[in-house]
Amino acid sequence: DYPGLRWRASGNDLGWSGQVFVTEDGEDAAQAGVIGDNAESVLEVDLEGPGVFFFSYLVESEKDYDFLTFTIAGAEEFSESGTVSWTRKSLLIPEGMHTRSWRYQKDGSQAEGSDTAWLDQVLWLPQGSSRYQQWVNLYFSPDQQADPNFGGQGGDPDGDGRGNLEEYALGSEP
User: Residue 99 has what pLDDT?
Assistant: First the structure.
C-alpha cells in the first residue's frame, strides 16, 4: 500500500508477501508467510522520525499460542492472538531512525482460523513533509522517485499527458 518505504520480509520459512484475497480496502494487503510450527514470519521497515505511522491489521490464529507482535526498535508495542477483526493503529514515531517489525509467530502445535495475519492501509506521515511529497510517497517507490522521468514532478508514468504535479493538483492517480 505504501511503496515509498523500503520493506524487508524474513522468517524461518517464508516472509510476508502481497495478496488480493483478504484486504481491508478491497485492493491488496500483505500476508504473513505460510509457516510451520515453532516458526515466524517477519516484516520490517525503517522510519526516520518524527512522524505518525498508520496501519491496519487482521489476525486469525490459535488464541494465546500464536501471535502477531508489533515491535519498535526491538521493544514490543503490542501483541494480538486469536480472531481479531481489522483494527486501525496510529503511532507517534519519535525523532531518529527506528525499525518497525510485525512478527507472526506460531507455537509447536495446532492451528486455528486461517493461522496467519494481514497488514493493510499503511501510511507514513513524516513531520514537516509537504502534502505533495506524501502523495509521491503513496504512489512511488524510492527507486521510482529517484527517476525524474517517472517519479519527478514532470514525470508521466501513465502516459496521459499530465505530469505528476498536475495529477496531484487534480486529485488523480499518476
Answer: 94
